[in-house]
Amino acid sequence: MVNGNNNNGEGGTNYPNSNEPPEDDELCDCNEQYLDSLIFKLEEGQGDAQSLADDYKELESKLTDSQKHFEEIIQSYKNMLQEVENEIKQHLTSCNNGLSEVRDEITKKIDKLSILIKTVFALIEFNKTQEKVAFYFITQYGILLHEAYVLKRAGMDKYRHSVANCQGAQLGEFGEMAATIFSDFKEYFDQWEDVYAKSHGVTIEEAKADSERDQVANRLGRLRGRENPTCDCADLMKDLIPKSHRDKY
Asked: pLDDT tens, 129-151?
């Protein structure tokens, strides 16, 4: 993570404004050893992504069932409440045998269940959003590999990471939250047991510095996505493409 504040509204290294991204002095990613490592990670990631998608669908199904169950209970309480109201109308207020208290208690239960339904619905929406953001990240990662090892366009990682974050933020608060989680996890993984330093043949300090630059690009992507929810993120983040490749996009 990057400490401090920048002028983009999020913590990180200082830059003049949101339209001036960090210069990409990305370390060379074009050695064969790293290619093998990335291919392995991509294949592993495909399996993890499928497993994650299956888990999301299972969770969504359970949440949807819970929502339906709560709605059925609320309807039963509403029916009961109507019966109580009818009973109250048939008796004098002084002789209603506590029916008013029963009505008030049922109303409270309906209110509590309504709150539960809203919570479940929010969880369903967050789950769907997470699945979309995961798709964005996997897609951009696949494009990045193609660019680096087929098209031989090094240094595109900041652009691709920022595009995925931008797309996530355009989905709203949940999307931005999911994009932040995925981005932070990726950076933490790279630093875990010095994975990035070892795979790139660089020092730990250089690996940490590159991680900080990644996070600056990630936050910039989320900022622009949040502020421009209907724009194409590929265009919004074009200034993060290395100058040597900009004429190709």
From this structure: 888 999 999 999 999 989 988 88
CA atoms within 13 A on the CB side of 85: 8
C-beta separation of 16 from 25 below 8 A: no
- Contact partners, residue 63, CB within 8 Å, separation at least 6: 120, 123, 124, 127
Q: Report the candidate in 236, 216, 220 with the shortest Cα–Cα distance to residue 228.
A: 236
Helix (H, G, I), strand (E, B) or coil at 203: coil
50-80 in b/e burial notation, b at 16+ Cβ within 10 A?
Answer: eeeeeeeeeebeebeebbeebeeebeebeee
Show the DSSP H helices in the chain as ranges. 32-89, 99-149, 157-169, 173-191, 195-200, 204-227, 233-236
Residues in the chain: 249
The structural domains of the chain, with segments of one domain joined by +, span 33-40+52-248
Residue pLDDT, tens place only, 160-206:
999 999 999 999 999 999 999 999 998 888 887 677 777 777 788 88
Residue with tokens 């790279």: 190
**Residue reference for tokens 């993984």:** 189
Cα→Cα distances 6→85, 161, 211, 219, Å: 60, 19, 16, 10
236: which 2 tokens? 């919004």
3-state secondary structure of 72: helix
Residue with tokens 């931008």: 166
